[in-house]
Each structure stands twice: as C-alpha cells, then as structure tokens.
Design a protein that fits this description.
Elements: E1 2-8, H1 12-25, E2 35-41, H2 48-57, E3 61-66, H3 72-82, E4 87-91, E5 95-97, H4 103-108, E6 114-119, E7 125-126, E8 128-130, H5 137-141, E9 158-160, E10 164-168, H6 169-175, H7 187-199, E11 203-212, H8 221-238, H9 243-255, H10 260-274
Parallel strand pairs: 1-2, 1-4, 2-3, 6-11
Antiparallel strand pairs: 4-10, 5-11, 6-7, 8-9
Helix pairs in contact: 1-2, 8-9, 8-10, 9-10
C-alpha cells in the first residue's frame, strides 16, 4: 500500500484541487486498496475533515489529525507514524495530480527512494535540488538542479524536491525520520543525506506527473526567506560544516548583482548566523 502524507496549514482551498485531481485520475476498483491518505492539519482548521470525507465517500482510506504547529518535519513524522503502507509519499497540499500514481509501488518497491516529474506553471519539469554542500556560484548560474532528473550521474549530489518525496517506510523509520529541529526548509535535504548513505542515490520516475505551485502555501516572502536562512544555518551545524552558511551568504551576495531578491536573502542569512532573526533558535 502507498501511504500519502500531507501536512496542511491554511490549505483548505488548495486541498480541493488536490483531492479532485487525485480522484480524476484514480477510479474505483483495484486502486481503492492501494492508497491511504493521512492529512496532518497544523493550523487548527477543522474543515480538513471535508477533504478526508470526500476521499472516503469515493472509497479510499483517509484520515486527518489536528496537531500543534511544530513544523513541517514534525507533521510528516506524525503522519508516518500513522501510516500502514510500505511506501510513504510526502506530498504538499498545493500540488495537483496530473497522472495516475499507481506505478509508484512497482517502481520504488521497498528499497528505492526518490521522486517523480514535478512541473511548474510553465510546464518545466523539476524533481531534484543539489544538496547545499554541492552548491556554488557556478551551479546556481547554470541552474544545474534543473538537469538532475535528466542526468543520472548528478543524482548522487542531489535530493528530491520535498513537495513530492517517496521513501520506503522501513527505511524512513530506520533513518529516524525528519529532524524536528527544522521548522521549515532543508529538513528533506538533511534526511536525504541519511537516505543516500543507507540506500544510495534517489531515483526519478518520469512516467508519473504532478503539478506543483512553488510557495503556494506561504503568505510572506520575508517569512520564507527568514525560515530558509534559519534552516540553512541549522543544516550546516547538524552536518558539522558551519562554514556552509557563510559560503551561502557569499554566493547570494554575488547573485545579488543579478537579482535584488538574492541580496535580501543574504541579509536574512547573515541575521540567522548572528542569531538575530525573529524566530531564532
């Protein structure tokens, strides 16, 4: 069975498209016993039950749980603890299913991990990002991450984009799951380092497609930039390479000559390194 775990936060409207798109591509029959949905709602919005009931009425297993907002990773860990499937899919609420996903079970089995073809608004496929320790000004300018799904050799330096991440449940549990010291961002990169060591590089399944709207659940650029910076510093400390955070600042400063947004992100990173962000710690 495939357990699809989705952590939601003020996502009521987004979840309508999520559920409707899944039902549009998965009819009754043998699909009914192949999937279970677990929704972890951390904003207190009890309307999440409407979405689980819609799936249940279509014959699918679905449940929802309310929890205190302790971060994305904590929500995913709770969802995983409730899952019964051999394969875990961590899927964002702001995505839409644009193909069947039944193939995941055969393609990933219980030893592979990775992701599928995720498309943005312009139809460009993306699936992986480079682990932070492999990023530099050249990889950013060349946007190497866009090619990771096409070039298998790059996948040993990459991790699946967290909006749709597939992991065998046994391997997820053995790894210890997501590190709950992260509130938002880089938790999937840090987990991926451990999965790389246990299972080898992630795989890409091009025949399964989902559409994902970047930052669809976030309301403030300042919030996302701050959380990104805080998590980058935590990531660098956790893997024992604190210099990566300063390296990130230098890279963003260089990129600021091309994009003012990069300069803003650099400021947030410097504040995070100094422990002066509003959410520090």
């Amino acid at each position: 069975m495939i357990s699809i775990i989705t952590v939601t936060h003020n996502s009521y409207e987004l979840m309508s498209d999520y559920v409707d798109s899944f039902l549009a591509h998965h009819s009754k029959g043998n699909a009914l016993g192949q999937f279970e949905f677990i929704f972890i709602e951390n904003s207190g919005d009890e309307r999440i039950v409407e979405h689980t009931e819609k799936l249940q009425n279509a014959g699918f297993s679905a449940r929802s749980e309310l929890m205190e907002n302790r971060g994305f990773g904590a929500g995913c860990n709770l969802g995983a603890s409730l899952a019964t499937g051999d394969i875990l899919v961590f899927a964002n609420p702001d995505l839409q299913f644009t193909s069947e996903i039944r193939e995941l079970e055969a393609a990933f089995g219980t030893t592979n991990w990775g992701t599928v073809a995720q498309t943005g608004e312009r139809g460009r496929i993306y699936a992986f990002d480079l682990l932070p320790e492999y990023r530099n000004i050249l990889t950013e300018l060349m946007r190497i991450s866009r090619f990771c799904h096409r070039i298998k050799a790059l996948q040993k330096y990459a991790y699946p984009v967290g909006s749709f991440m597939v992991v065998p449940r046994a391997s997820f549990e053995a790894s210890g799951g997501f590190d709950e010291r992260f509130f938002l961002y880089y938790e999937e990169a840090e987990l991926s380092r451990r999965l790389h060591a246990a299972l080898g590089p992630p795989i890409f399944l091009p025949s399964v497609h989902v559409r994902h709207e970047t930052f669809g659940t976030q309301t403030s650029s300042d919030f996302t930039f701050e959380q990104e910076a805080i998590s980058m510093v935590k990531y660098a400390d956790i893997i024992g390479r604190p210099e990566l955070a300063r390296k990130r600042v230098r890279m963003l400063r260089l990129l600021s000559y091309l994009s003012a947004k990069a300069g803003v992100r650099a400021e947030f990173h410097e504040q995070a390194i100094a422990g002066k962000t509003r959410s520090a710690g």
